[in-house]
Each structure stands twice: as structure tokens, then as C-alpha cells.
Design brief:
Layout (H helix, E strand, L loop, with lengths): L3 E4 L5 H12 L3 E6 L20 E3 L2 H8 L13 H18 L6 E5 L4 H9 L3 E6 L8 H9 L14 H13 L2 E4 L2 H7 L9 E3 L22 E6 L8 H9 L6 E6 L6 H6 L6 E5 L6 H7 L2 E4 L8 H8 L4 E4 L4 H4 L6 E4 L4 H13 L1 H15 L4 H12 L5
Parallel strand pairs: 1-2, 1-4, 2-3, 4-5, 5-6, 6-7, 8-9, 8-11, 9-10, 11-12, 12-13
């Protein structure tokens, strides 16, 4: 079997595990990214790619990183449009490297259009990984804007550039196979893909390096320690979490937040809800499991999420999860066993779930142990096996 070309401008655990899985099976022609182990560091690095044919295209990303200190919001390197510019340039660069020696191109949303177009010219198959719900299905943003117009500044998807949306449509049109991490994501994209083209679901994985939480009698005392990790903005349903908590007795729950705030959203939250919370800031990835073990449960009320890696990270740490049905939770959680799945954008249902947790503290340890057992079935090694087995029938 001829090898594959895989590419992603920034790199993340699922990307590295795809490329590493191909490499360990002798199926990786080359893996393209912007930066990989720069200056010999372990930043943007993965042990499974040591010795692999990694090709870097760093200049646009280095420029973006240098601009993260720019005080002008439009030109700040952290802005979504700046990241999209990097992805656009990266995609065009990868397209120029294709020669047809490889069987297929495996690319990700927003950095696939040029690569897929060139791959098609060379007779290569195209595999499209959609890490979040398809943009055409993002009616949740319009619904949120209609429900509360003051949320509009925090909903950037309402004013995406037409050129970016055209690229998204082009990417999907050129894809021979679509890969999703959750049934929710598949549901958002399936109406826009011809029925003859496969849409595959392969849930992400998790490392099991950490020991699970050791539950004790002390966990029955004091407030329920609730942890949220992710971007602190409306897409993650954070405002619904605060609305749910605002109706609970003061002191029943202690909320800790890890992540970076969407600009201005913290002020929006505190002006509306008198819910106390602990701010942990941006937490290094390797500390998430430690915080989970100090908590009683993770809450993840997302309105539109392709999966949510923190779900499996919390489960691996041995704590249950309360999550919405618009993410990967229904794929990995049996409602009432490893956690609770609630309808998104329904704060009363979310409050009911949190009240149940507060009133049934003794059940949380049992659910946490079940969560760890489930996480053991979703390791990154299993992800690599499942993903490569799923795409193998469609390779040249």
C-alpha cells in the first residue's frame, strides 16, 4: 500500500496520534506541520513521531506567535483570523509539495482546500478530518444572538469572512471520506455530504499515565467541587452553567474554571450572575488530571463541540462528567453510569443534574470508578487502531 501524506498547521494530540499511528505501521509518507519540537524542545512534539518524516513550514506561524503581543486586537496573533491566515498559507504550501507518490492526503478543516485540489489532480484520495461541527449547522449562534443580543460580540462565527466559508465548502466537496470524532459532528455534516461518501466516527483517546482519584469519606463533606476546563466563552455553554448555578443554594457547589476568557466575556458574566468561582487561568495540559482528582466532577455544557478531549481526561482521572448532548459525551458516557448527559442550552436541566450530584454524593465515587474503566477503553493506542482500520478500506 502506498503511504499517506498528513498535515495540520498547529498540531494537537489527535493529529499527532494519527501521524504516529501511520508511521508505526509504515504508512506515513510525510507529516506536514508548522512547528515540531522547535529548537530541540518538547513543545509541539510527540514521542510517536521520533524519526518520522516530519516536514515543517514555520514562517507564517512564527510571525503569528510574534504578534501575540500586539495591542491591536485585529492584528493580535491570538485572533481567530490570524490563525486562519496561517492555516490558509500552510495549506497552499503543502499543496505545492505533493508529487503523487503517496496514495492519499489526510487533512483537517480550514487547511485542506488547496491540498485536496492538488491531490485530486494527481489521482490521490482525500480524507477530511472535521474536528468540530460543520459550520453550516451552526444555527446555535443565531439562536443565542436572538435569545440575547448582548452575546453577539462573543459569537465570532456570525461574521466569518466569505472567503473562509467558501474554503470550507470547497474542502468538503473535494473530500472522498469524512472523519469525525463524535456522532454529534457526523450529524452536523451528513446532510451536506452525498450519501455515497462515507462519514466515519472514531472517538478520540486519552493517556492513562495518571492514577485515578482516590475517593474518601472527606469527599462527602463540604460543597461539591465542580471543574470546568475550556475556552471561557458562550460556545462552551458557560453562561448556561452560571444560570444553572444561580438557582442553587449558596455554598452547595464550588466552581473552578480553567481556560482563557473570550475578550469581555468575564465582565458579561459577573454583571449578570452572583455566582462565586475560582479562576485557575490557563492550566498546562499536564495539570488537568491533577485538578480533576481534586474535584468531584467535571461539567461540560457545550453548545457546539466536535468532541471535548477534557471529557476523557476527567474520566481517566476517575471523576464523573455532566455534559451536554452537543459534544462527544453521548459517545463515551452511558447516562447515569459514568456521568449525566443533559440537553444543551437548557439551564434548568443542567441545574437538576447538579442538584442530583449534590444530593447523591455517595454515588459520585461509584460513577468516577466507572468513568475510569470506560476511559481505559478509549486510549490513544486504541484511537490509532480504530482510525487506521476505519480509513484503510478507502485508500488506494
Amino acid at each position: 500500500m502506498k503511504p499517506l501524506v498528513a498535515s495540520h498547521p498547529f498540531g494537537n494530540p489527535n493529529v499527532y496520534n494519527l501521524a504516529g499511528g501511520l508511521f508505526e505501521r509504515g504508512m506515513l509518507g510525510s507529516f506536514h506541520t508548522s512547528l515540531f519540537a522547535p529548537l530541540g524542545s518538547h513543545h509541539r512534539w510527540h514521542r510517536g513521531l521520533e524519526g518520522a518524516p516530519v516536514r515543517t513550514h514555520p514562517l507564517p506561524e512564527i510571525f503569528r506567535l510574534a504578534m501575540t503581543h500586539c495591542p491591536i486586537r485585529r492584528w493580535n496573533g491570538r485572533s481567530p483570523r490570524f490563525a486562519d491566515w496561517v492555516a490558509y498559507r500552510f495549506d497552499r504550501t503543502v499543496a505545492r509539495t505533493l508529487t503523487g507518490r503517496d496514495s492519499s492526503a489526510y487533512c483537517y478543516e480550514d487547511s485542506a482546500a488547496a491540498t485536496f485540489s492538488r491531490a485530486r489532480e494527481l489521482g490521490m484520495r482525500t480524507i477530511y478530518d472535521l474536528p468540530t461541527g460543520y459550520y453550516e449547522a451552526k444555527s446555535w449562534q443565531r439562536a443565542e444572538a436572538e435569545r440575547d443580543p448582548s452575546l453577539i460580540p462573543f459569537l465570532p462565527g456570525l461574521d466569518e469572512l466569505p472567503a473562509k466559508l467558501d474554503r470550507k465548502r470547497r474542502e468538503l466537496q473535494l473530500a472522498d471520506v469524512v472523519v469525525c470524532a463524535s456522532a454529534f459532528t457526523r450529524g452536523t455534516v451528513r446532510p451536506y455530504v452525498p450519501s455515497s461518501r462515507p462519514v466515519i466516527v472514531v472517538p478520540y483517546g486519552v493517556d492513562l499515565d495518571c492514577a485515578p482519584k482516590l475517593w474518601s469519606e472527606s469527599d462527602l463533606l463540604g460543597p461539591v467541587e465542580v471543574f470546568f476546563a475550556g475556552q471561557l466563552g458562550p460556545q462552551k455553554g458557560l453562561h448556561y452553567l452560571f444560570e444553572a448555578l444561580s438557582g442553587m443554594p449558596r455554598g452547595a457547589v464550588r466552581l473552578s474554571l480553567a481556560g482563557s476568557w473570550a475578550q469581555g466575556f468575564r465582565e458579561w458574566i459577573v454583571s449578570r450572575y452572583s455566582v462565586p468561582f475560582v479562576e485557575l487561568g490557563q492550566v498546562p495540559h499536564n495539570r488537568i488530571s491533577t485538578i480533576c482528582r481534586r474535584s468531584h466532577l467535571l461539567v461540560f455544557p457545550s453548545l457546539f463541540d466536535g468532541f471535548g478531549l477534557v471529557l476523557l481526561e476527567a474520566m481517566a482521572a476517575g471523576i464523573p462528567v455532566i455534559a451536554s448532548d452537543r459534544c462527544g459525551a453521548p459517545d463515551v458516557i452511558a447516562d447515569g453510569a459514568e456521568g449525566l448527559v443533559v440537553p444543551a442550552a437548557e439551564p434548568l436541566r443542567l441545574r437538576t443534574a447538579l442538584e442530583w450530584a449534590a444530593e447523591n454524593r455517595g454515588r459520585l465515587a461509584e460513577m468516577g470508578r466507572g468513568a475510569r474503566r470506560t476511559a481505559e477503553r478509549f486510549t490513544w493506542a486504541r484511537y490509532r487502531e480504530r482510525l487506521i482500520a476505519a480509513i484503510a478500506p478507502y485508500l488506494n
